[in-house]
């Protein structure tokens, strides 16, 4: 869980640094935006990780039901 948050925070800060470099302004201009984008990046990567885990669990459950023959096959 912490790995995804660290990756997201890093991604958010790098997006802001890249944006500032494209505009040719100081890289650390408006540092509160770096903090804000780090939080948004950490939150979004965490949500993606949770969503992926839920989808994998749901897929394994459906696969198990299909192998046991509990699921009705519609042709």
Total tally of structural domains: 1
Helix content: over 70%
Percent range for β-strand residues? under 5%
Mind telling me the C-alpha Rg? 20 Å
Order of helices and strands: HH
Shape estimate = rod-shaped
Number of strands: 0
Secondary structure category: mainly alpha
Whole-number mean pLDDT? 90
* Low-confidence region ranges: none
User: Helical element count?
Assistant: 2
Largest sheet: none
| Termini separation | 41 Å
Tell me what the structure shows.
The chain is mainly alpha-helical. It has one domain. The protein is built from two helices and no strands. It has helices spanning 2-22, 31-68. Helix 1 packs across helix 2. The mean pLDDT is 90.
